[in-house]
Amino acid sequence: MTRELTAATEHAGVRLDAFLSADGALTRSQAARLIAEGRAAERAAFLLKLETAKATREELAALFEGARVILADALCTLCGAPPAEPRDEQALRAVLGSRLTKAQILGTIELLETYRNHCEYNVGVGPLLGGLAVELEEIL
């Protein structure tokens, strides 16, 4: 998934460096942070970059699931329940909780789960990412 993301992290004038790890890979933490902190243009540019980088459905499924788990833990934290994930993502959960409402977090969790499940079918990466982009902006 990082094949072309490491080469160029700017698309349509939007810099994506803040959302990539040191080696240029997008981790689930950066994906969740992009959902919480990114602007619509940043999210769209990133999803387009995933498509042009020829990400596979399996890579997308893993990314969607990882981000979904972090968002679920953020929702648990907001509701007073202990998170299932390690404490190293505690700061990210706090950012998610402060920037998104419970309804936005829950809607995004459901959306990521839906699109993770869509990755199991013979659906192209482009339509998956395009549909996710549109529906994500409706939630956020």
Percent of residues in helical segments? 55-70%
Main sheet makeup: 2 strands, antiparallel
Number of helices: 6
Please tell me the overall pLDDT.
80
Principal-axes shape call: globular
Question: Would you count the extended β strands for me?
Answer: 2
Q: Would you identify the regions where 5 or more consecutive residues have pLDDT less than 50?
A: 1-19
Which H/E pattern describes the elements? EEHHHHHH
Structure description:
By secondary structure, the chain is mostly helical. Helices cover 62% and strands 3% of the residues. The protein has helices spanning 28-37, 40-52, 57-78, 90-99, 102-118, 125-139; strands at residues 10-11, 14-15. It has a two-stranded antiparallel sheet. Helix 1 (28-37) crosses helix 3 and helix 2 packs antiparallel against helix 6. The two termini are 25 Å apart.
